[in-house]
Backbone:
């Protein structure tokens, strides 16, 4: 294996050339497409809320997506004045930063999270913990009746659906 030293100025050129080397059968990707591919490989997870957010028009938004948190996402709420005044507000600010879509809503902000049902906020908190700590949305469970083991995906779907 050959090692190569890369300076910060040529990093983009190196990444573009390594992308081209890994995908010889495809046409070269445009810089914006290859940059977005590097930033977002498997970092967004779909979910379905148990109850759903009801907007001011009465529309229910249940399906959404959450991205993996960065260190900045976890540090930013610590300097937020709302969190300093009320530490319980930390989860509202944090969730508003990592939820990327909720139904048709693309701009999920703290005001939306504030108005969600407590059941949905608890679901999102658990979902956040699962994808950021464990890296997936699956959990091994055991049936209390037959003691059979199986895996459940917590990202969404109604009970009994596959």
Residues:
């Amino acid at each position: 294996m050959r090692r190569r030293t890369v300076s910060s100025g040529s990093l983009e050129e190196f990444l573009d050339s390594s992308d081209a080397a890994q995908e010889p059968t495809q046409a070269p990707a445009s810089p914006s497409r290859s940059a977005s591919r590097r930033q977002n490989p498997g970092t967004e997870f779909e979910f379905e809320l148990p109850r759903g957010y009801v907007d001011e028009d009465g529309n229910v938004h249940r399906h959404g997506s959450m991205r993996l948190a960065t260190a900045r996402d976890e540090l930013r709420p610590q300097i937020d004045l709302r969190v300093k005044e009320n530490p319980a507000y930390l989860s509202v600010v944090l969730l508003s930063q990592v939820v990327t879509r909720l139904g048709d809503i693309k701009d999920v902000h703290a005001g939306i999270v504030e108005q969600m049902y407590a059941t949905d906020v608890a679901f999102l908190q658990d979902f956040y913990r699962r994808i950021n700590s464990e890296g997936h949305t699956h959990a091994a469970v055991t049936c209390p009746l037959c003691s059979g083991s199986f895996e459940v995906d917590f990202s969404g779907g109604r009970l009994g659906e596959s």
About this structure: The radius of gyration is 20 Å. DSSP finds seven helices and five strands in the chain. The beta strands are 44-54, 60-67, 99-102, 138-142, 149-153.
